[in-house]
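Feature request, filed as a ticket because there's no other form

It would be nice if the structure record came with a short human-readable summary line next to the C-alpha cells. Right now we just get the raw output. Example of a typical job, pasted below so the devs can see what we mean:
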Amino acid sequence: MKTNYNVLKIVAIALLFTCNSWGQATLAQWNFNGADAASIPGGGSSPLVSVGAGTAALIGGSTGTFSAGNASVGTTETEPTATNFGWQTAGYAPAGTDNKIRGVQYNVSSVGQAGIVLKFEQRLSNSASNTYVVFYTADRTAATPVWVEAQTFTFTPAATGTGDTWYNGRTVDVSSITSLDNNPNVAFKIVSAFDPIAGDYVAARSSNVYSAGTGGTVRYDMVTITSNVTLGVSQFEANKNEFKIYPNPANKEIVTFNQTQDIEVFDTLGKLVLKAKNTNTIDTKSFHSGVYFIRTGSGLTRKLVVR
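Raw output as currently delivered:
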C-alpha cells in the first residue's frame, strides 16, 4: 500500500499544534559564568540570562558582584572551576529593618507555557540572614505589582556547618498557580527576612552575629525557571482570553482579575457575599477564611481560596 507522506505530515503538524507537550522546558536560566568575575555578561547589577529569555535585577538596596560558583556536592553546575561564578549579593538591611525587602528579582515570560517552577542554589555567609522568602507576581508591569508569598526557606543555625554553605535544590513549585501560565509578565523575588521565631534577622551560624548594616553575603548559582507543559495553539488562544484571578489563594487582601467584569461572589453554602459591576478587583479583607466562588456576568465561574 502506498503511503501518502503529505497527509501524514499534515496530521503530525496538526497534532503538534493542538496537543500538550508534557516535557519540562527551561524558560530561563542564569549560571553567572564567564572568563573572569569582571566579564560576566550584564555585570553585577543585572546579569544576563545564559539559557532562554529573562532579566535579573537587584532590589531594595542590595548590591551585586561575582565570586566563585557552586562546586559543592549536589550542584547542577557543570562549568569548570576557572569559569564557574556565582552572583554574590550584599548590602542587606540593618537589624530590625527592611524585612522582606532586599534581595534579587528574576523576570520571565511564560507565554505558551504552563506549570511554572523556580529552582535555585544559594550560598549564605556565616553572618548572613538564615531566612529568605520567595514571592511571585503575575504582573510585574503593574503600577503596584501584587506580590504573593510562595515559600519561606529557613533553618535553626548551628555553631558550625551552616554558614558559608551552599543550599542546593531550593525549589518553589507554583505549577498550580494558573495566573502564572501563558503570561508575559511573571516575576519572582528572593528577599532576606526576619527569622520566623526570633522576629528579627538571625545569623546563619549561631556563633556569628548578623552583620548590622551589611547582613553578610548571599550568593546565587544555577537559577532556573521551568514549565511543565507547553501549550498547543488552541489552548494558547483559549488561555489568552480566560478569566483569571490572583493572588489565589489570597491572604485577605486585594484580589485582581485579568479582565473587567460584573461579578458575584458566593460562599460554599451558596450565599451571595459580594456583588460588583465593571470591576477588576475585590477586597477580601472582610472575608472569612475558606472557599468562595466568583461568577462573572459572562457566565464564567472561578474558585477563590481565602486564607
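Something like this underneath would help us a lot:
Residues 1-19 have pLDDT under 50 and may be disordered.
The chain is about 5% helix and 40% strand.
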